[in-house]
Design brief:
Strand content: under 5%
Subcellular location: Cytoplasm, Cytosol
Number of domains: 1
Number of helices: 7
Pfam families: GET4
InterPro entries: GET4 (IPR007317), TPR-like_helical_dom_sf (IPR011990)
Structural class: mainly alpha
Distance between the termini: 80 Å
Subunit structure: Component of the BAG6/BAT3 complex, at least composed of BAG6, UBL4A and GET4/TRC35. Interacts with BAG6; the interaction is direct and localizes BAG6 to the cytosol. Interacts with GET3.
Shape: elongated
Helix content: 40-55%
Number of strands: 0
Radius of gyration: 22 Å
Largest sheet: none
Order of helices and strands: HHHHHHH
Keywords: Cytoplasm, Transport
């Protein structure tokens, strides 16, 4: 006679599985926030910005995803580890899955934000993948005058 299996209360599944698709358990909503906020990084930040815009915070522009992503990027803490993940996912999304390095407009907006923060190395990388040669040159001139020696002027452009 087969032994009856003991019934335990249903436990939430901690990861998605192709055999049994269930949603990840969500934490309880924060007071004053809508309960439909997803936990993924891009969606969470976009909805947080939309919620802030409804409450009189920064405004999102309709139909301009690069500008919206750059706005979210500029509002993030520069020392946050989530910022690196956000940039890589945003650039991967903007490439359209074609394996390119991301949309040039998004690279330009990220470079301008990093330039304002005086993060010249990261800004240079994003300027190189954008179509803004004049902005890149202006940033390199500022970088060489603020952080370099007079004898090293030619090395910043190389």
């Amino acid at each position: 006679m087969p032994r009856a299996r003991a019934r335990y209360p249903e436990r939430p599944q901690l990861f998605l599985d192709s055999s049994s698709p269930r949603h990840l358990p969500q934490p309880p909503p924060r007071p004053g926030r809508p309960s439909f906020l997803p936990r993924c990084a891009l969606g969470h930040m976009a909805l947080e910005l939309r919620w802030a815009a409804q409450c009189g915070g920064p405004r999102l522009t309709q139909g301009r995803p690069a500008e919206n992503l750059a706005k979210v990027f500029s509002l993030m803490d520069p020392n946050s580890p989530e910022r690196v993940t956000f940039v890589s996912r945003a650039l991967k999304w903007s490439s359209g899955g074609s394996g390119k390095l991301g949309h040039p407009r998004l690279h330009q907006l990220l470079a301008l934000t990093l330039w304002k923060e005086q993060n010249y190395c990261e800004s240079r990388y994003h300027f190189l993948h954008s179509a803004d040669g004049e902005g890149c040159a202006n940033m390199l001139v500022e970088y060489s005058t603020s952080r370099g020696f007079r004898s090293e002027v030619d090395m910043f452009v190389a």
